[in-house]
Description:
Blueprint: H1 2-29, E1 42-48, H2 52-68, E2 74-81, E3 96-100, H3 102-107, H4 109-121, E4 126-129, H5 136-145, E5 149-153, E6 157-158, E7 161-162, H6 163-170, E8 173-175, H7 184-198, E9 221-226, H8 237-251, E10 254-259, H9 266-270, E11 276-277, H10 284-293, E12 296-299, H11 302-310, E13 315-318, H12 324-327, E14 335-338, H13 363-366, H14 370-386
Parallel strand pairs: 1-2, 1-4, 2-3, 4-5, 5-8, 9-10, 9-12, 10-11, 12-13, 13-14
Antiparallel strand pairs: 6-7
Amino acid sequence: xxxxxxxxxxxxxxxxxxxxxxxxxxxxxxxxxxxxxxxxxxxxxxxxxxxxxxxxxxxxxxxxxxxxxxxxxxxxxxxxxxxxxxxxxxxxxxxxxxxxxxxxxxxxxxxxxxxxxxxxxxxxxxxxxxxxxxxxxxxxxxxxxxxxxxxxxxxxxxxxxxxxxxxxxxxxxxxxxxxxxxxxxxxxxxxxxxxxxxxxxxxxxxxxxxxxxxxxxxxxxxxxxxxxxxxxxxxxxxxxxxxxxxxxxxxxxxxxxxxxxxxxxxxxxxxxxxxxxxxxxxxxxxxxxxxxxxxxxxxxxxxxxxxxxxxxxxxxxxxxxxxxxxxxxxxxxxxxxxxxxxxxxxxxxxxxxxxxxxxxxxxxxxxxxxxxxxxxxxxxxxxxxxxxxx
Length: 390
């Protein structure tokens, strides 16, 4: 464990040095800025990074920014991960979207330079950074925007560097650092309020949930979103299958398997229980439709969790320890979490101090058995019947 901590420190120091050098180089390279001509819409730039779930968490905030900066007097441009693009329909806010290809950003100086120059040419008056993982992408975009008004949330560190000096060079209004256990939905809402207050405007009211696509099935069903962005975070398919068997037998819900999991042998694991296996077989609209209309969604992955939660449906997260408080502990009652009883090592930023289990996953995730998940799911379904989940 000592060697592991030493390795992390060396890696952090190297990343911090690289970040500082990159920022200096780009600050020198990006000279000149365009300002909007009289009569043009005031341009608002917003940076949002992360996976599909991060876009779902951000959608309500985008609606509030649109109320704060209404069209046609303003024009909102969102810079976000290319993975967001198929799910932009979750928001009906009029906005321009610029997709950032993270692989090309990391591997091509030409692509990176072209993107930064295009940001500089747009002539932003306001720049808002809602980045979920502070690093040089957001800092470089904020510098390239050169907007007179630049807003962001404070951070404890950026690439393990002291955050305040780096942020102060790129933003002129920084909201207080979030509490470690502040949920991401509250963070993005707090930044909305901070921007409104800084501009002397009333904080826009919370937006209602988006209108979901049409229901894909007429019968009640259970959505099981399997898989995760990393194998060590993925609850085994065999446990999802056993959970599906139990809930079908006891509650009569048709199991519908969704997500990016590619584990074979689901039919054998279900042992005759009827189910729809739609893993890797839905487009974005179909996936959202199944998540939005499920009687209950059980998700091990943040994408399924946040998309289902966006529509207010009963949602159960099977949660490992990394980023536990920030992404799993929703303040709303319709989202609940099943997790290991001992949470003393949670929120570890995926720097697990323990060996991966024989199942190939984090020990905290491996500790969640089917009995725990089934009990939590049935409790939510009972509350649904009594009307106490809202």
